Amino acid sequence: MEQNATDEQIQTIASKVEAMGLKANIIVGTERTVIAAIGEKRGSFKDSLESCPGVSAVTPISAPYKLASREVRPEPSLIEILDFRAGSGHVGYVAGPCSVESEEQLMSSARAVKAAGATGLRGGAFKPRTSPYSFQGMKEDGLKLLAAAREETGLAVFTEVMGTDDVDLVAKYADVLQVGARNMQNYRLLEAVGKCGKPVLLKRGASGTMDEFLLAAEYILNEGNDQVMLCERGIRTFETHTRFTLPLASIPYLHRRTHLPIIIDPSHGTGHTYMVKDLAVAAVAAGADGLIIEIHPDPPNAMSDGYQSQTFDEFAATMDRCQKVQRALQAD
Ligand code: PEP
Ligand code: MN
Fold first, then answer.
1. Read out DSSP for 148-205?
2. pTM over 0.90
3. N or C terminus of the chain: which is more exposed, having fewer CB within 10 Å?
């Protein structure tokens, strides 16, 4: 729409778009309002819409994803939950154990996360494990502990939801619902988190392409939830010196394609504690909008992912370096 288009003109165009059998998604930006006409490709209506009052241009969006694309929303999105901020110049730091194991384990972790200057707490209560015989998580008891940790520390709680049946329960306790790598293409789950009213952290599937990743985000956005963060957590390659291969090129690529914030997970991305700090620093230097890092009070005895978890001291040192890089870049 033109910069000075009236509300009435915007509504009129939205109604015309709906009358064509398309969904009209009104995106209000600082410069101008965009009406995204979403649906299956139609015959040309460019000329008839373009001649309407208040319309600046009708532009076909070339990317297969629409609401996620920079073409529809040129300005970066900012996600804000309590003190956590990611995107639009803010780097959001999230840390915590892979799994919630006990009150003491979680509370000590939450205090360490807070003390190091991070603003998000992670912790799995429902765990997707490769083997059915491995620890599956504390489920609702774990969610209650996460909520108690938020109560004490003010940290925003990130936790995974594995199935559609659990969305309401997880949304009751969590601030951000994490969709795990194994569920990136679970379309019913993506729709359900799109309807849940809470921000979502969508992890990239280990074999998901960038287009598939962004189309997965599109499912959530298409339900009216614009609070989506993308998480690069590494992909599967022929290489075995790391658990997964963490492509930091995803950061500039995604920044070019989408307005959604990009969070890097150097823990799953490398699978080795000794690599986490360097990759975290590199991610911040490359323009990541946030990090999600696994920490544990006693990594060798963690119930999951201990081999890639940092101690509290290692995490504090990581935060220190990342923030130094951030300040150096800001001063530039
Ligand atoms: C996790 O965050 O602990 C996790 C299971 O991650 P991913 O879905 O990326 O494997
Ligand atoms: Mn983990």
1. HHHHHH-PEEEEE--SGGGHHHHHHH-SEEEEPGGGTT-HHHHHHHHHSSS-EEEEPP
2. yes
3. C
Q: Residues 24-58, buried b or exposed e (16+ Cβ, 10 A)?
A: bbeeeeeeebbbbbbeeeeeeeeeebeeeebbeeb
Q: Where residue 40 falls among pLDDT bands split at 50, 70, 90?
A: confident
CA of 48 to the centre of ligand 1 (A): 48
Q: Is 109 within 8 Å of 116 (Cβ atoms)?
A: no
- Span 147-176, pLDDT tens digits: 999 999 999 999 999 999 999 999 999 999
Q: Choose among 45, 118, 87, 67: nearest CA to 293.
A: 118
Residue having the nearest C-alpha atom to atom 1 of ligand 1: 98
Give the CA dihedral 37, 42, 44, 48, nearest 10 degrees: -50
Q: Which of 185, 268, 294 to mutate to test the pocket of ligand 1 (most atoms within 8 A of CB)?
A: 268
Q: How far is the CA of 268 from the centre of ligand 1 (A)?
A: 7
- Ligand number nearest to the C-alpha of 296: 2
- The DSSP secondary structure of 84-124, one letter per residue, reads EEEBTTB-EEEEE-SB---HHHHHHHHHHHHHTT--EEE-B
**pLDDT given for residue 50 in this prediction:** 92
The helix (H) or strand (E) run that includes residue 18 is: helix 7-19
Q: Kindly report the protein residue whose alpha carbon is nearest to atom 4 of ligand 1.
A: 180
Look at strands 23-28 and 33-38 and give their pairing. Answer: antiparallel
Query: For residues 279 and 310, what is the distance between their CA atoms, to the nearest angstrom?
Result: 13
Question: Which residue puts its alpha carbon closest to atom 9 of ligand 1?
Answer: 181
Ligand 1 pocket residue status of 96, Cβ below 6 Å? no
Atom from ligand 1 closest to the CA of residue 98: 3
Ligand 1 atom closest to 231 (CA): 9
